[in-house]
Amino acid sequence: MKRVVVVGGGIAGVAAAAHLAPRTQVTLLEMESTLAYHTTGRSAATFLINYGGKGARPLAAASQSFYENPPPASTDSPLLSPRGALWIATRKQISHLESLAAAGRASGAGSVMVDAQEVRRIVPALDPAYVAGGLWETSARDIDVAGLHQAFVRIARRHEAEIRTGSPVVGIVTQGTGWSVRTHDAEIDCDVIINAAGAWGDRIATLAGVDPIGLVPMRRTAFMVPGDEAYSDWPLVVDVDEGFYFRPDGTQLLCSLAEEIPADPGDPRPNMEDVALAIDRINTATTLGIRTVNSQWTGLRTFVPDRDLVIGEDPTAPGFFWLVGQGGIGIMTSPGYGELIASQVLEDETPANLLEAGVDPGRTLPDRFRT
Ligand SMILES: Cc1cc2nc3c(=O)[nH]c(=O)nc-3n(C[C@H](O)[C@H](O)[C@H](O)COP(=O)(O)OP(=O)(O)OC[C@H]3O[C@@H](n4cnc5c(N)ncnc54)[C@H](O)[C@@H]3O)c2cc1C
Questions:
Q1: CATH for 230
Q2: Is the same domain home to 199 and 264?
Q3: Could you tell me the distance, in angstroms and rounded to a whole number, from the CA of residue 246 to the centre of ligand 1?
Q4: Number of structural domains found in the chain
Q5: Statement to judge: residues 157 and 284 lie in one domain
């Protein structure tokens, strides 16, 4: 049985652990005292097929079967709930909806163009002087991120994976045909390392003597403002050029400027100027008149230059697998990429359900950084 060390206990690490634990001996190492402390615990929790790179979209589609039929006893409640997404455009932006609609139709998002009247029927608070049209996608859902993360942890533990928190990886050396991974209080020999360290992915590679691939963490802040129960059936509303978004969350509205600001790996804090700018843009597009903020947080969405996922063994370092570059889609695609990386580690054929969803494993390999 292969011995696998997974570095990182965010959604990527636990998705890999859950899919590998039934057939390998898995040890997951997380530097923080709790799992999902970094980006995974700070997302907007949306499943949106018409989003992300060409490698990611089929993985989102392939993930739907896990959400709809999670393995027995892995979760106590549904992982997805209805939401819908409404991309909106001003008169000047209206042509931008066309290309988004084409991408959505190609990805199976069920995208439908709607006029200004229909946009306002769906979200009456949108200002008729602002909105000229929209793109409506009923396939968008809210994700129970904590439930999904916990489902992966339960599956992994049920198959005897060991999950160690408070265990930062501080050294990695080759050991025979495999690796030896060092934390402050242990050395673990393994055949395979899965680098699921998010914003720290290049640092883990460097520790192992593997060249980095150019990961860039980007800050994004989200915040909650007072809402109303009457808003609860509104969809996610997104500016077509991603200048802002908002959606109901209980009796509050979750909002964001949807900004991307390069940052070092770490624990970023919100910049209130970004929050103020988002409020200004949302108030310009709506009649909401937002004045107060209940809470705010910032996370790092980490990209490689082509903004697609990186999944697979590094061609320069046998046994070193990358599972990084999740950017803004790492929650929704996690069942799909968990299954894909498990098939790669186990040297299985790519699972038929992934191929049927249009997944091309070659597209997301790290080989594209090694020419
Ligand atoms: C505001 C915002 C909104 C978002 N909205 C969505 C959304 O609606 N839908 C969606 O799908 N995605 C969304 N995302 C993106 C999503 O949250 C990420 O793609 C995903 O969480 C990345 O998961 P990860 O496991 O790669 O990273 P992380 O959750 O950051 O996990 C990496 C882990 O590695 C650990 N680690 C690092 N170095 C070491 C070390 N040396 N030793 C041990 N452990 C280490 C870290 O402590 C961390 O826990 C959003 C992100 C943000 C910030």
A1: 3.30.9.10
A2: no
A3: 21
A4: 2
A5: no
Residues 294 and 227 in one domain: yes
Site to probe by mutation for ligand 1, drawn from 301, 324, 334 as the one with most ligand atoms within 8 Å of Cβ, is 301
The structure tokens 């490689």 sit at 304
Which residue range forms the structural domain that includes residue 284?
85-139+216-303
pLDDT in tens, the chain (371 residues): 999 999 999 999 999 999 999 999 999 999 999 999 999 999 999 999 999 999 999 999 999 999 999 999 999 999 999 999 999 999 999 999 999 999 999 999 999 999 999 999 999 999 999 999 999 999 999 999 999 999 999 999 999 999 999 999 999 999 999 999 999 999 999 999 999 999 999 999 999 999 999 999 999 999 999 999 999 999 999 999 999 999 999 999 999 999 999 999 999 999 999 999 999 999 999 999 999 999 999 999 999 999 999 999 999 999 999 999 999 999 999 999 999 999 999 999 999 999 999 999 999 999 999 98
Give buried/exposed letters for 131-158 (b at 16+ CB in 10 A, else e). Answer: bbbbbbbebbbbbbbebbbbbbbbbbbe
Ligand 1 atom nearest the C-alpha of 221 is: 1
Nearest atom in ligand 1 to 47's CA: 9
Supply the residue whose CA is at minimum distance from atom 51 of ligand 1: 43
**What is the DSSP track for 196-225?**
--GGGHHHHHHHTTPPP---EEEEEEEEEE
Q: 288, 303, 318: which is the final residue of a domain? A: 303
Distance 352 CA to ligand 1 centre (A): 28
Q: Look up residue 261 and give its DSSP letter.
A: E
Distance 96 CA to ligand 1 centre (A): 29
Question: Which ligand 1 atom is at minimum distance from the Cα of 332?
Answer: 11
- 299 CA: nearest ligand 1 atom: 53
Are residues 71 and 106 located together in one domain of the fold? no
Q: In sequence order, what DSSP letters do the residues of 156-203 get, joined into one string? A: HHHTT-EEESS----EEEEETTEEEEE-SS-EEEESEEEE--GGGHHH
In a domain, 80, yes or no: no
